[in-house]
Amino acid sequence: MTRSDNIIKLLLVDDSVDDAEQTISILRNGGIAVRPARASNEAELEAALEQQTPDLIIADLACKDLPLQRVHELAERGGRDITLIACGRGVTEAAIVKAFREGARAMMLRDSHEHVQMIVRREFEALTMRRGVRRLEASLRESERRCEALLDSSRDPIAFVHEGMHVRANKAYLEMFGFDDFEDVEGMSILDMIAPQDADDFKSLLKRLSKGEKPPQRLNLKAQRSDGSTFDATMEFTEASYEGEPCQQITFRLQTVDPNLTQELEAMRQKDLVTDLYNRQYLMTQLEEAVARAANGKTDQALLLLEPDNFKHVLDTVGLGNADVLLGDMATMLRRHAGEDLVAGRVSEHTFGLLLPSHDAEATRKLGEKLRNAFGEKIFEVGKQSISLTVSIGGALLGEKNANAATVLNSATTALRSSQNEGGNRINVIDPSEQDKAAVESTRRWLEAIDHALAHNGFVLYYQPIISLHGAEGDYYEILLRMAGPKGEIPPAQFLPIAERNGRMPAIDRWVIANAIRAIAERERAGHKTTFFVKLTPQSLEDQTLLPWVAQQLKTARQRGDSLVFEMPESKVVTSLKPARAFAKGLEQIHCGFALEQFGSGLNSFQLLKHIPVNYLKIDRNFMAELPKHKENQEKIKEICDQAHHAGKLTVAEFVEDAASMSILFSCGVNFVQGNFLQEPEKILSHAAA
């Protein structure tokens, strides 16, 4: 799936620009990417629908010029699949019922941020699923058309049988039994094609099939033509469907070879010649069947993958010519300790697979440990070499949540690689039913790490230059945060979302601010006039003691207030407008600056400046991507700069990617630029952040 597939094209039908902006901000704060547009009357709605078909329409029930029913009529015009969501405040039961009658698929409570995010996610997922189903249906129809063509042109006599009756047969089948047209056999029992001496046995087979038993892959019997003559035939059974109904695909073949030889040849086709285990094709067929059983509610099935550790080093020891001998010995070990009821196969060059038909999580891990220990204790005699080796094992349990062969194989592979990355000679098993528990445990561990970092100075500050295009005095930097980990520094994307969900951000904000002030003081003592841009989270805005604390920190460090600029994304300021305004006004009193990040992402971003005192506007990064190629983005940046300068604000362009963008930004009137192209972030020396 591409990145653009995850961006929701959103059309807001709303009289209020502020309400529309708030909805957009709520969604973006929830991590939902949207490309918004707004309409407040019928002409604007028609223009928006014509310009770009939206995924979702959120229509305010209080919209005066566009009643919900009319929005639905215009959205439905042309047969487009657009999800209509009604929204409102203090909605009554009667209003909800009326909204659904007028075409709404969902009702959204405007004042509940969580409800807004949940409804939009759910409806977009449902829309994506409907689109996917339509694509699959089209693909299925095309596949069925091709299958019909292949069936008609096949030289193999093939028929489809449902409840013992013919529902489809190809030309070769009709010719084999002496019929001219399918109408001659349509609705005829398959029993009529069986010679009398085998009819009773075949009737018993049909009864077993009707009870859900699996058919034999092959059945040797005498078949009977329409003229009563008989011939020796082999019937091959395959589960299939025809016009949506489950049925059996039956292929008749003349017995031209010894049945025992045919059986031996079939067994050989299923085996890997080097290891005498099943080959990948057969193992995947069995996995598909196991997945189908899981989708129908069967539990306690699993797939294990096993690889020798450091196989390249092992080959260097035994020699490439002895590789097959070693793999054969490993396969023998696998069969001996796995048991006869398991399907063991060779998945790739040195990867073995085990399909477990009746193993829960505990039994799967127990078997994995048994295999791991057995291989670890074995001394392999290969040529003139005696070697020992260890194995890594990865597994995945099958369930309804992951009832897909590719998904199960990928999960088992991920678990195998995890075992190898952890040093090898171990087993990891992925259990879908335990993933929620694992997520809770992972959150607990992250919170422990965050709390430990807060208590023991376990965070690390970086700073990235913000370069003036017009020679502003002093040095400007943005402060960036990392967390020290046992195997290196941890980027903020891994721990900040967990910290935010669990109320740790105010404490982290204070740690960053305190250490940033210390770093500024150290730089200024060295003669470098410095301004730091420091990110602030909405949770800190609710802390009434934060501003006095910042003032005291500056006073203790004997540091000027304008050396600090606090920054927040535009979308988060919109949803926390009252506390953000109070905080920004408080910053003015202690002479600190305030900046809006991701500016220009809303419907009317400059409207926000009437409510919030702002010093810097950091232009939304989406305008920077491949800037030289996008004339409309260049025009938008120039428009933002012109309005910003008219309002007395300075502009900053982040994520600058190339030299060509630099010259464009200069001509647009941007004041400052920032990005890895100019300079990557550098660590603040530890004694400054101690």
Short précis:
Helices cover 44% and strands 23% of the residues. The chain starts with 7 loop residues before the first strand and ends in a 7-residue tail after the last strand.
Polypeptide structure, described:
With 690 residues, this protein is an alpha/beta fold. Among the domains are: 1-131 and 443-459, Rossmann fold, CATH 3.40.50.2300; 144-256, Beta-Lactamase (2-Layer Sandwich); 273-436, Alpha-Beta Plaits (2-Layer Sandwich). The chain is built from 22 helices and 28 strands. The strands form five sheets. Strands 18, 19, 20, 21, 22, 23, 24, 25, 26, 27 and 28 form an eleven-stranded mixed β-sheet that branches. A five-stranded parallel β-sheet has the order 2-1-3-4-5, sandwiched between helices. Helix 11 crosses helix 12 (361-377), helix 16 packs parallel to helix 18 (546-556) and helix 21 (631-646) packs across helix 22. The longest helix is centred in the N-terminal third of the chain and has 41 residues, at 113-153.
Which homologous superfamily in CATH is the superfamily of the domain at 273-436?
Reverse transcriptase/Diguanylate cyclase domain
Strand proportion = 15-25%
CATH topology of the domain at 273-436: Alpha-Beta Plaits
Q: How many individual β-strands?
A: 28
Taken from the alpha-carbon principal axes, the silhouette is globular
How far from one another are the termini? 44 Å
Query: Given the structure, what is the number of helices?
Result: 22
Give the class-level CATH name of the domain at 273-436. Answer: Alpha Beta
Organism: Dokdonella fugitiva
InterPro entries: CheY-like_superfamily, Cyclic-di-GMP_PDE-like, EAL_dom, EAL_sf, GGDEF_dom, Nucleotide_cyclase, PAS, PAS-like_dom_sf
Pfam families: EAL, GGDEF, PAS
GO molecular function: cyclic-guanylate-specific phosphodiesterase activity
